[in-house]
Write a structure and sequence with these properties.
single chain, 117 residues, 2,3-Dihydroxybiphenyl 1,2-Dioxygenase, domain 1, 8 strands, Glyoxalase, Glyas_Bleomycin-R_OHBP_Dase
């Protein structure tokens, strides 16, 4: 079983380019007005609409801090903060913003017992 999260966007091309180029997502499926991208087991669709869904958080999980740091380097101009440890959730993380103003989180679990799917 799997799933896809869809977002409406008024800036389809810019948003898809951002996720492809800067977050290294791959195109999973191209539809007439929607592009579905993948990153590991994450599937996100962006659909060209006359409104933009900017709620929620798109979270990318990396196997280690280096993955988070490398991504922060690519997103430095849109990052809201430097990567840091979050003791509450035992993660290393930072937040950024996509072209629609949607929140993007990049994180790695600090607990070695957490296995990525």
């Amino acid at each position: 079983m799997s799933g896809i999260v869809f977002y409406a966007t008024e800036s389809h091309d810019a948003v898809v380019e951002f996720y492809r180029d800067r977050l290294r997502m791959e195109t999973w499926l191209e539809q007439p007005d929607c592009t579905i991208l993948e990153h590991g087991n994450l599937l996100v669709g962006f659909c060209d609409r006359d409104r933009t869904d900017d709620c929620g958080i798109v979270t990318f999980v990396y196997p280690d801090r280096d993955g988070v740091d490398d991504t922060h380097d690519r997103l430095a101009d849109v990052a809201r903060e430097e990567p840091h440890e979050n003791e509450t959730y035992e993660i290393y993380q930072f937040f950024a913003e996509d072209p629609d103003g949607r929140t993007v989180e990049c994180q790695a679990f600090l607990d070695d017992d957490v296995e990525l799917p």
